Amino acid sequence: MLFDDFYFKSLIRTVEDWPKPGISFRDITPIFSDPKGLRMVVDAYVHRYIDSDITHIACIDARGFLIASVLAYELHKPLVLVRKKGKLPGKTISQSYDLEYGSAELEIQEGAVHEGAQVLLFDDLIATGGTLVAAMTLLQQQGAEIQEVASIIDLPDLGGSAKIQEMDIPVFSLCAFEGE
């Protein structure tokens, strides 16, 4: 199946003023109720990474889990969870970061990746890049190398993808919403 950008974008719903006034939230949940849309997303990533040198797929709480878990299964790669503070058992390391509408903290379990791991970092959306940079920091603290950051949606006007690329990390997104 070819990737139909128009059809795919039609599945992404915009919710105005959520989670706070002034934010236009891009909601990917309609993709999960559309078998064709979900297949398009998974297939696009599988085709992109099937012959890559990645050894692990890391994903960010919580919407990033949904596609990354299927991708890890399809590519036969371990899945590393990067979660909000207090959600992972055992010893963890943490990193705080700023969001476009506040601040938060992420954690990863100690030993989740090994020195030299080649990681694909996945999240549903790139906005300001704060969440992804925090996740990259946690993975790199454990000796991992970030091969690429992947997302379903990029919001380039918010500068996150540019910030990541300035760190010499490639970025791949299935679609972008610019100037909206």
TrEMBL record:
Signal sequence annotation: none
Location(s) in or outside the cell: Cytoplasm
UniProt keyword Transferase, yes or no: yes
Recorded GO CC terms: cytoplasm
Pfam families recorded: Pribosyltran (PF00156)
Catalytic reaction list: AMP + diphosphate = 5-phospho-alpha-D-ribose 1-diphosphate + adenine
Enzyme Commission code(s) on record: 2.4.2.7
Pathway where it operates: Purine metabolism; AMP biosynthesis via salvage pathway; AMP from adenine: step 1/1
Molecular functions (GO terms): adenine binding; adenine phosphoribosyltransferase activity; AMP binding
Keywords: Cytoplasm, Glycosyltransferase, Purine salvage, Transferase
Ranges for domain Phosphoribosyltransferase: 47-154
Gene Ontology BP, a term: purine ribonucleoside salvage
Family: Belongs to the purine/pyrimidine phosphoribosyltransferase family.
Function: Catalyzes a salvage reaction resulting in the formation of AMP, that is energically less costly than de novo synthesis.
Subunit structure: Homodimer.
Protein name: Adenine phosphoribosyltransferase
Biological classification of the source: Bacteria, Pseudomonadati, Pseudomonadota, Gammaproteobacteria, Oceanospirillales
Gene: apt
